[in-house]
Amino acid sequence: MSSGGRPRYWLALSERSVGWLLWSIGAAIFVQGHDFNEAHPELVAQYPVLHDIYLNMQTTWEHDIAHYMYAGGGMWMSWVQLFAFRNQIHGPFQRKTLTVWLLGIVMYGLLLAGVAIEFPWGLYVGLAYTIIISAICLIMMVYNRQGLKNGGLRTMGRRMVLQYYLGACVIGFIVIIIWLAIFGFKNRKAAGVAVH
Fold first, then answer.
1. pTM of the prediction?
2. Domain range enclosing 98
3. Which of 84, 110, 130 is a domain's end point?
4. Domain total in the chain
């Protein structure tokens, strides 16, 4: 699909157009969730009557809705990227390219775990995300082999995008499991870690 895809993939839309449309929906959900998350506490100091409104907004919109909107939007965009690059084969790569790719995998895995640890109920979302995305990657690689043994599962970057998400989700999952073993389902603040 990244090089054009099939015409008339869904109704009159090409495969590329379907991918862009789906990705744009996920991006819109992600960005709208982020906008809800942008509360302005400095106004509360200026107008004390806004204190109750601010607390309601912070609890309901920021914690209960916005965080999960942009987590859901991010997950949606990940699914679309997996769909878009499901048939792509890369490599072989030079050592420098592999090093940057592996560093990206580690950084994204740590980011997934860090975000999960930061927010209330984030550990549940993080577990669901890492398990679901890993399963999707494995299914895509095993059932859409693209002429590679085991779908390229054991290659270093031949299925670069799928392996990137799979590796990052495995790292994120491991870090979340370690956190759960130490602190249970408490987020960072509730566990008292790095509280200012």
1. 0.77
2. 89-196
3. 84
4. 2
